[in-house]
């Protein structure tokens, strides 16, 4: 049987991002609502680097299911809202979702990177 986002074996311990969402670890929060939290990355890869994290512990986009559809859309809308609030929506920005080790996933909790504040090259690396 394929593991799902809610598999106990994948989510046995709270992730760093769950602890931030639960206010157990401090973060520079720029947005918060009942479905997600957005905060500044502590190791920014652009002048502005914000993570938008669902409160629901979804391990990665590849393990999301149909019941996650609304929260996934919400994350993208909040990412766009954050870009507007940070002042780079008009000039452009990048959204990144890593999936798995080879995709650059460092924390096993789905999150959207919002990168902006400078011209971003392509391919990214």
Question: How is the largest sheet built, in terms of strand order?
Answer: 1-2-3-5-4
Total number of distinct structural domains: 1
Give the C-level CATH assignment: Alpha Beta
Radius of gyration, rounded? 14 Å
Total beta-strand segments? 5
What's this, in brief?
The protein is α+β, with helices and mostly antiparallel strands. The chain has helices at residues 16-21, 69-86, and strands spanning 29-32, 36-40, 48-54, 93-96, 112-116. The chain is built from two helices and five strands.
How is this structure best described in words?
By secondary structure, the chain is an alpha+beta fold. Helix content is 19%, strand content 20%. A 5-stranded antiparallel beta sheet has the order 1-2-3-5-4. A hairpin with a 7-residue loop joins strand 2 (36-40) and strand 3.
């Amino acid at each position: 049987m394929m593991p799902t986002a809610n598999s106990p074996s994948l989510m046995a311990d709270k992730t760093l991002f769950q602890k931030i969402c639960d206010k157990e670890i401090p973060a520079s929060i720029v947005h918060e609502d009942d479905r997600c939290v957005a905060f500044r990355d502590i190791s920014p890869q652009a002048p502005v680097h914000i993570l938008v994290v669902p409160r629901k512990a979804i391990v990665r986009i590849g393990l999301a299911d149909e019941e996650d559809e609304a929260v996934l859309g919400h994350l993208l809308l909040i990412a766009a809202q954050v870009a507007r609030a940070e002042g780079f929506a008009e000039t452009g920005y990048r959204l990144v979702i890593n999936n798995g080790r080879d995709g650059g996933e460092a924390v096993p909790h789905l999150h959207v990177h919002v990168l902006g504040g400078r011209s971003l090259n392509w391919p990214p690396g």
